[in-house]
From TrEMBL:
Keywords: ATP-binding, Ligase, Nucleotide-binding. This is Carboxylate--amine ligase. It comes from the Bacteria. Residues 121-329 form the ATP-grasp domain. It comes from Demequina lignilytica.
């Protein structure tokens, strides 16, 4: 049986969490290729870093992967990333890679379907999944809905502000810059919306920008869902949880910072139905919200990757690296198959526990969080006994404190909307 080398691209916290899971379960070593050592990799011994400043040029990336393959002739090479741009490039150029590369990502067609929020909403409609009312704004196409027409449609619909603005294609959003750009825009007025649309039109933004109704409820009404569908067409993992707190800096707005895991069978079945409908393969990460007004579940998007917060799945009892290995590296897995959904309620958090509690206003939710913490502790992806030198532990502690300072700057107290 050949050795396995896990090669991560970019080095975000989601890639670290997967490499931790692979090391914990199998002892597999890791490399990370990135333009610099990230916050999450600083003082870590889990992975060896290869600094490649030009990692976002396809030819440079492919050449670097060829070099890694040549340096490890006796390994199976498991390629992993949590960036949409890399997922798309790998889907486009999969045939050019050494056949030993294991690339656990969807086909280009499936990637395009889920990474376009317009196509995603259409697919959801076909299988009976509710998505928010959306106006897709295009730029430079006379036949499509332009900025002025979009504003007129929103007036006719008489949607109340706030409204949500987000890119249809996250890879295109990654490449554009303009004053006030955020990961997700929260428009309090029509003037704010018009200003962002003007910036995008001025820059000839190549894909659609979505303006959506705001589903009522604060961020504790948000849910995260992680799924895996294997090469045989079986959904072998569906896991999820209630978001307790999201990140609030402009570049990370909306990313879950704390999750209380749990089973939502209705939503799990909906996600599996969609993945079957589009013949998806690999990990997918869904965001949906439970309306505080109606209680209905509204799906916002599916990311064609595992997601930054994937450690909540491993922490709740199903190791994400094992899920992948059962599909693509079965010789490394013995014993009975893992459960489809983890049943253990655990607290995942990258913010200090006592600081998290200040944002939980619902007494019932606070009690559930306290119970989970008492039973199973707090699960933080960067706190790993296998990567716990004194310097690393002090660094992770400093990262926690910096995150607290960012909340005090950008979101000092909880609000009804989460903004």
């Amino acid at each position: 049986m050949r050795q396995v080398l896990v090669v991560g691209l970019g080095g975000d916290i989601g890639t670290y969490a997967f490499q931790r899971a692979a090391h914990e379960r199998f002892g597999w070593p890791s490399l990370v290729v990135g333009p610099r050592v990230t916050t999450f990799g600083r003082h870590s011994t889990l992975a060896r870093w290869i600094i490649e400043p030009d990692i976002f040029t396809p030819e440079t990336l492919l050449a670097r992967l060829d070099a890694i393959a040549a340096e490890h002739p006796d390994h199976d090479l498991l390629l992993f990333t949590n960036l949409d741009w890399h997922v798309r490039v790998l889907a486009e150029h999969r045939e050019r890679l050494d056949p030993r590369w294991i690339v656990p990502f969807p086909s280009l067609a499936a990637f395009d379907l889920v990474s376009s929020k317009v196509a995603f909403a259409q697919a959801c409609d076909q299988v009976g999944i509710r998505t928010p009312f959306t106006v897709a704004v295009s730029f430079g196409d006379a036949a499509a809905v332009g900025p002025a027409d979009a504003v007129a449609q929103l007036r006719e619909r008489d949607l109340a502000y706030p409204l949500i603005g987000k890119p249809s294609n996250s890879a295109d959003w990654f490449a554009i810059e303009f004053p006030g750009k955020q990961k997700i825009h929260h428009f309090e007025s029509e003037a704010e919306l018009v200003d962002v649309l003007a910036h995008l039109e001025e820059r000839g933004y190549p894909s659609e920008f979505l303006v959506q109704e705001f589903v009522p409820g604060d961020e504790t009404h948000m849910r995260s869902l992680t799924a895996y569908r294997d090469r045989a067409g079986q959904v072998t993992l569906v896991a999820g949880g209630q978001v307790l707190l999201e990140e609030h800096t402009p570049g990370t707005l909306g990313i879950p910072a704390a999750i209380l895991t749990g089973v939502d069978r209705e939503a799990f079945d909906q996600a599996a139905r969609l993945l079957d409908h589009i013949a998806y393969e690999g990990f997918a990460n869904f965001d949906y919200k439970v309306s505080s007004r109606t209680g209905e579940k509204v799906f916002f998007e599916a990311n064609p990757r595992i997601g930054r917060n994937n450690f909540y799945v491993t922490a709740s009892g199903v190791n994400v690296a094992e899920v992948l290995a059962r599909d693509l590296l079965p010789a490394h897995v013995d014993g009975a198959p893992a459960p489809l959904s983890p049943e253990r309620d655990v607290l995942y958090s990258v913010v200090p526990y006592r600081f998290l509690l200040r944002y939980l206003l619902d007494p019932g939710l606070r009690a559930r969080v306290r119970t989970a913490k008492r039973r199973h502790g707090v699960h933080h992806p960067l706190r790993y006994r296998g990567d716990a030198s004194l310097k690393r532990r002090l660094w992770v502690r400093s990262v926690d404190l910096r995150l607290v300072s960012k909340y005090l700057q950008h979101y000092p107290r909880p609000t009804e909307s989460g903004f």
